[in-house]
Amino acid sequence: MKWLMWFYPGLKVKRWMALSFLGLILTGTSISLFFDGEFFGYLENSLRQLSRAYDHGAMAGLGAFIFAIGLFLHIYGFMAMVRSIFEVLAPERDARLVEVLYRRRSLERGPKIVVIGGGTGLSVLLRGLKEFTSNLTAIVTVSDDGGSSGRLRDELGMVAPGDIRNCLVALADTESDMDRVLNYRFAQGDGLIGHNLGNLLLAGAAQTAGGFEKAVDLMSRILAVRGRVLPSTLHNVTLCAERLDGLHLRGETAITADGQGVRRVYLDPPDCAPLPQTLQAIQEADAIILGPGSLFTSVIPNLLVGGIVQALRKTAAPKIYVCNVMTQPGETDGFTASRHVAAIHRHCGGNLVDSIIVNTEPASKALLRKYEEKGQKPVVIDSKYLEKQGCKVVRARLINKENFVRHDPARLAQAIMAVVIGERERQNRVGLVDRLLYRRKMARSPQHHPWQNRVEG
C-alpha cells in the first residue's frame, strides 16, 4: 500500500502533519474562547445529553471513530494539497509523489563518498552508487587528448570534457534520456564530424558561464545530477609516461597506443593544483573510492595533482580500490591485483589503499577467448601479497557477463556500500533510520544476495 510510505522514517513529513494537526486544535480552542466557550460548549452539551442514552463503552467507541475520521481527513487533505503542488511543478513525473520524496530523502541521508577515476569504469560505478546516496563527489581526470576532447583542448585551450560528460550523464536523474542526447556524435557537418554533442555543450557553457568549473555546475543543475562532478584540476595538463625501456611518451593517446609497458606516469606541468572543493570533499568524506578504470591513464593521473595525495593521507575515511576485472594490453599486461596496488603506492610515495574490491565470478570461456585475442586476461587475485601491502580483500561477484567482462553497476555499488556501512557501524556512526533505509534498499535490489561478499585480511 503506497500511502503507508508517508509514514516511513526519514521523510520529514510526519512532523509537519503533527504540527498542522496541533494548529487545528489550537485554532478551534481560540475560536471557542472568543465565543466564551459556546463554540465547543454547545457541542459538548449535546454530547453529554447523548451520553445519557448510551453506556460509556459505546461513547468511547464513537469518540474513537470520530477522531479517526478527523485524523484521516486532515492527513488526506494535507497529502492532496502537496500532491497538487507537485503536479504543477513537475507534471512530467511518472512516479508517485511519496515515492519521489522517499527516494530523495533517503539518498540525502546516504554516506559521503568521493570517487576518483575516469573513463568508462567511473561512470559505471556512479550509475550504481547514485541509487544509495546523493552525497557523491566524482573527481575526474582531464588529461584525455584524443577524439572530440582532444580537438576541443587544442582549439579552445580547455581541459578535456569527455570523462566529465560521461559522469554527468551517469549521475543524471533522467539518465536514459540524457544518455542518448549528450552522447550523440556527429557523423556529418563541416567541422562537426566526430564531435560529441555533450562536449560541445560543455565547451559552449564554459565560454558563456566564465570558466569550465562554472560550466560543469551549470550542466549539473540542468541535468539534476545526484551528487557533483569535479575536474581533478583546471590546468590544461598533458599526461606523460616513461616506458619500461626508459623512453618517454607524451599524451594519453600515445601512451594507450604504444603498448610497450609503462613504468610510471607524470603530468606536465607538474605543479597543477586541485579545486578547493576537491580537498574539502576528501576531508569530509566517509569513504574514498579509487577506480575502476585504466590504472595509468584514468586512476593514477588524479593522484598526481598537487595536494590530493596529502589530503587522502589526512582523512580518516577508508581508501578503497576497485580492481579491474581484466588486464589492459600495453599497460597492465601480467599485472596481478597486488601489482595494481603497488603501482598506486609507488606513484603516491607509500601505502595508501586500505581495502581492495576484487571480482570472484568467472566469465564464460567464449567471452574470455574474445578478450585473449586482444591480449587481455583476468586479473589474478594474489591475496597473500595484498595482505602484505596492508589491504583488506573484499571478494564479490561483480561482473556483467552479457557481452563484455566488466563491472555490473548494481553489484559493484552493493559491495562498496557493504564496506562503507560496515566501517561506519564499527565507528557507531550509523543511526537507526539510516540502518533501516540501507537495509530496505539492499533488500529491494534484484542483485542482492547475502553470500556474495566476503572480507579477508
From TrEMBL:
Gene3D superfamilies: CofD-like domains
TM ranges: 58-79
Protein role: Required for morphogenesis under gluconeogenic growth conditions.
GO BP annotations, alphabetical order: regulation of cell shape
Source domain of life: Bacteria
UniProt cross-references to Pfam families, sorted A to Z: CofD
Similarity section: Belongs to the gluconeogenesis factor family.
Keyword Coiled coil: no
Family annotation (PANTHER family): GLUCONEOGENESIS FACTOR-RELATED, UNCHARACTERIZED PROTEIN YVCK-RELATED
GO molecular function, one term: LPPG:FO 2-phospho-L-lactate transferase activity
Organism whose genome encodes this protein: Heliomicrobium undosum
Official protein name in the record: Putative gluconeogenesis factor
Recorded GO CC terms: cytoplasm
UniProt keywords, alphabetically: Cytoplasm, Membrane, Transmembrane, Transmembrane helix
Lineage: Bacteria, Bacillati, Bacillota, Clostridia, Eubacteriales
This protein's encoding gene: yvcK
Localization in the cell: Cytoplasm
Record InterPro entries: CofD, CofD-like_dom_sf, Gluconeogen_factor
